[in-house]
Amino acid sequence: xxxxxxxxxxxxxxxxxxxxxxxxxxxxxVEVPVPAxxxxxxxxxxxxxxxxxxxxxxxxxxxxxxxxxxxxVIPAEYETVWNFSEGFxxxxxxxxxxxxxxxxxxxxxxxxxAAGDFSNGMAAVEKGGKWGFIDKTGKEIIPCAYDDGYSFxxxxAAVEKGGKWGFIDKTGKEAIPFQYxxxxxxxxxxxxxxxxGKWGFIDKAGExxxxxxxxxxxxxxxxxxxxxxxxxxxYIDKTxxxxxxxxxxxxxxxxxxxxxxxxxxxGGCIDTTGKIVIPCSKYIYIAPFSEGFxxxxxxxxxxxWGFIDKTGKEVVEPKxxxxxxxxxxxxxxxxxxxxxxxxxxxxxxxxxxxxxxxFVPVVYLKLTVDAxxxxxxxxxxxxxxxxxxxxxxxxxxxxxxxxxxxxxxxxVELYETMSGETAPAPGESPxxxxxxxxxxxxxxxxxxxxxxxGKFAPSDPVTRQEAALMxxxxxxxxxxxxxxxxxxxxADNGEISNWAMDAVAxxxxxxxxxxxxxxxxxxxxxxxxxxxxxxxLRMFENLK
Length: 544
Prior knowledge:
mainly beta; 35% strand
């Protein structure tokens, strides 16, 4: 792409302000230009997708990374780079691969022939034709002794040895014997495995959950796994029951509660009950949903792409746009289409008619919360929202104090996002002053209790020590442990209630919650909605 100072395109600016039903306080799409890369104003460069706040930028000679301001964070000195995952990115020179952190520090020598992204704190690497695993210090924890393998998922990795597949744990110990012809990674507690040409599913103990009867199997998502039988696709649940029959000529995995399918050559979407919620009528292809949106492809005289939301509404129309005597459309290839990641999507465009002189081939779309948010909090609040941490009860002013009911809802969202599980259905309320379903769910999860006399006080502002306690209970529900302490290090430790002491000490130690200045915690103080969202984001990023 020629280096340009890019202006907002008129046509895609039609997207500004569109609401996204999947989120609470509405989200809107804003278009932003490709960042002008510092120091490269007179050179040609291209930019990639942003992941974890950084994007590759490619010059005619090498590749590095920039942030959203265009600042060069990692100089262009590599031949190839991959996107960041868990704080690290693969990089290559002279056909050898290594890893760098977000500062550009190489944590391993560039010595591997092939490698994978970090997952569960480890990365698969190939050396001398064999695969092993390194940790985030670059140390080879599991020697390169396997013929093939996947990254770690849910604490286990599928690996091949001697023509058979099995699973190992993070110490390298065999967890499930090498007896399968092929295998998939674990997802939601189950993994697809193949024997004698047929696929079934096993649990983490190696017990068969779904019999070996399918021609092909895929990973679980949203509680369902795609399977192929007799040339058609359907879905099984986690008990192994075929709950959506194999009737689709093509299908993808579930994502955000919807799965793309195809009937009679047309693409649509089903929900987890198998009901068609986006008709198979207009599109030839619908990509997986990500952060509330899916790319769609209309194939006619032009190969046109756009975006829909989860109701099927076109938020970016798949059509030719006209601007300054030019006609252009959004470009895409199935499987390599534009997708939202970390709140943004890189949009490539093709020129249909007009001069290339003023044509802008690449722009970005970003998601932002359509609410009153302080400038200092905007980036983190938007990040919390796109990660699914924002409940649907927060209103449109995030500078006000968050209530106990709202924080309970935030805690449930945090639990569901971090665990990948749905909170239990609400039963009868244990409280006399609220029947709010999400408070009942939070109570059932052990996240909240009342304030005495059978009352919850849902409208009271949450105190800082109450917030710390709720978050600590989310953490223990996820399997974590909160150490016992006699005191915190805060100067106002004597004002912290005994029931909150452990939680405050742990959350402060993990830098999830901070003091208010002067080494004070202010346990009876309150927090704004934007502060609460940022705290939840820290917990999601630091303790997942």
